[in-house]
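User: Could you check the structure of this?
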Amino acid sequence: MATFGKPENALKRAEELIHVGQMQAALQVLHDVITSKRYRAWQKTLERIMFKYVELCVEMRRGRFAKDGLIQYRIVCQQVNVGSLEEVIKHFLHLSTEKAENAKSQAEALEEALDVDDLEADKRPEDLMLSYVGGEKGKDRSDRELVTPWFKFLWETYRTVLEILRNNSKLEALYAMTAHRAFQFCKQYKRTTEFRRLCEIIRNHLANLNKYKDQRDRPDLLLPESLQLYQDTRFEQLKVATELELWQEAFRSVEDIHGLMCMVKKTPKPSLMVVYYAKLTEIFRVSGSQLYNAYAWSKLFSLQKSYNRHLTQKDLQLIASSVVLAALSVTPYDRGYGASHLELENEKERNLRMANLIAFSLDPKRDSREVPSRPALLSELVSKGVLACASPEVKELYNLLEHEFLPLDLASRVQPLLGSITNVGGKISSASSVPEVQLSYYVPALEKLATLRLLQQVSQVYQTMKIEVLSKMIPFFDFSVVEKVSVDAIKSNFIAMKVDHQKGAVLFGSLDLESDTLQGHLTLLAESLNKARELIYPPVKKASKLAEALPGLAEVVNKEHKKLLARKSIIEKRKELQERQLLEMELEEETKRQKIQQVTVEAEKIRLARESYEREQQRIKREQEKKEIDDAIALIDKNKKKGKKTAMEGATKQQLLEMAIQEQLKERQELEKRLQKLAKTMDHMERARREEEAPLIDSAFQQRLVEEKIAHERDQQQEIELSRERHVGDLQEKNRLSRMLENKNILQDRIVSRRKSEFDRLKRERDERIAQRLQDNREKREKHRKLIFYLRSEEERQKKLEEEEALRKQEEAERIKKEALERKAKLDELAEKQRQREAEVEERVRKEREAQFRAPAVPAAAPAPAPAPAAVSNAPGTAASTPAKYVPKWKRGESSAVAVTPPEPDRRGSRPEDQRQPAATDRWRTDRTDDRRPSAAPGNTGKWVPPSRR
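Assistant: Sure, the predicted structure tokens are below.
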């Protein structure tokens, strides 16, 4: 750890390290300065150091360093200049947010730039295969590599700032601003998990604030500014929760707002209360709590009418209509009929809890036992004039469903009214906090209410009615839906009716029409009848025209579908494996980090405990020394008062201690002697007391035995008399009941036989069901085995085809290779023959040339007077006959002395070099010329020799 005389030197050193690229070393230097105890007095240089420190932390994504530095800086400037801490935190938040947004924009730009590699090709095959096998697009990879680390750091930044500012009364506005920005972050990027954690963090901060009320800088919620900031934070939390559709977290936010209001005993502003009740209506609408939804709408209407002066008459009419329809949508019977005591108690607690949430300021004059109910709400709406503000269609609908008695025309008159209110609704222009009002949401509940009212009124007039007639009277639903609605109403003791499908009639009667044991038999009967009908009349499947045209199409489609399903399952498994590996890596990293953090925390705890123990030991030692000196001085002063003289007037500390110890020993010895004497006296007194009380205890024991014996005999006699009286009464009762024994046996036999038959019937049915289920299971297993066998055989067939194709390709390659080798061998053989012919030709030419050079050496008898005809023919420009001309026998002697005629040049005028080296393509011409030429051997007389003899 480097030490600096001034903070400026540390800042300069850090900048130098940054310029050379050693950012980690620069961060460590600044961290050492911030955490050092030498610089506890705030100065402007420390603020500049903190700015540079948070910039390095953001650049390197070191959230832990940033948190430690901010905590130390808060300690420095909390009481001196808290505004500096606020500026540093704002700078930290700004940098983190900017980095995250830059990473997001960079990822989007990279995705656009790398979207297409080749402008002429849509997508490469390898990219397509990678996208389907890997299951990861380019955007996902870029987000994971660029965006996710910065988003994690930004989330950690929000948590760090909230943790630092949670108990700071001077920075409440910054705490609220950070919470709002964190909410907007979760809303913008749909971070539901982080939003839940953020809500829990803020909730814990408020709980700790109420738990530890003796903190130094604790915010005071009784102040209007602090209360307003906390309320705004909770209401923003509620808005974001509803926009993210986290309804459970939204309900918890409502409870947080209610708890905050109960804590400070103050109602929020009407504008905030409008938001509160508007969000409550959404929460109760999603949860299906129609009653509490109607109460929330009622409160919302009251607030809008009282405090919103810009509300138009049309908007007021729309809200009033929604309130009335919400109240009418509540089921007109109690669903808790026949419930257990525990369920009723839970329902009571739930009603009380919801009543507290719906109405902040309950009227103290009202009966505390009153709970929200549909009749109470409707009467309240009528008394407060809400019904008068509703639209005419809603008023007429209310009168028809609540006051009119029209058993035959009720549904037909309600249906057009429901159709007219279906399209009514929209955004309220003058109150932005109120959500969009759509009256069509209440139409299904109102149709169900109209059906219940019609059944109730019909049951009061008729005892029996045809099912077709009743179905025509209810145009909203099919009769099966009407049965379900009526069953629910019958369970709640709202109406009493039976449906006789055999006779096709509906029977109305008293409320005790069915017992509790027969309530579910109608549903079971209907299900059994449906199954029986399907077995007797199975549905006919129509074959498609395409299947008729292509008979094997269905099989091909099934095979391709199975292949696609198998491929999809493989891809999903690979995705799951990759996700599992990533999750395991993250868990492993988190575990390592937690272990390191735990080790660091434990080491810090051990160090603090050791220092605390050492300080405590030193304090105890000092107190002991001081106490010993004080005791010694006190003893010496006491001895002086008794008249004793000290040995030395100017004694030292050690001498004083020794004198005090001697005095203490003397006093302790005297006290021990007194205690021994007192113990001996007490021992004698105790022995004497026990000797005196021994005979008295024996006499009292004997007297107690006699009294207990007399009491025992008396109780025994009373028990015998009572037993005799009970026996006589039991005999009389037996004689009286013996007359009914035969009737009892007959009834018992009848009940047993009936129950036995019922038991046998149920047992047969159960055996049949078990047998049917076993049969179904066997069929399922058989189908499964067939499917597995098919898949395996298909896989083996495919594998066999692949092996045959590979073998065929190998044989084809070998055949091609063999043909190539044969072709090469033939070519080599032809080339060898060609070389032999060329060698023969060259040898022949060589011999002819040698013969030419040897021809002048032949001796001549006399000079020839005139050239022979052969010689003349060889002269240039002559038109002699061709060489190897036939010579008669009588002229052959004359030509023997003539010089050998040189070979005739080629007829085409080719040069001798061409004759010495004939081309391979003119082999036939060369052979023919060689065959016709005379031999150039010495001594040749020009006689023609066949080629075979040459």
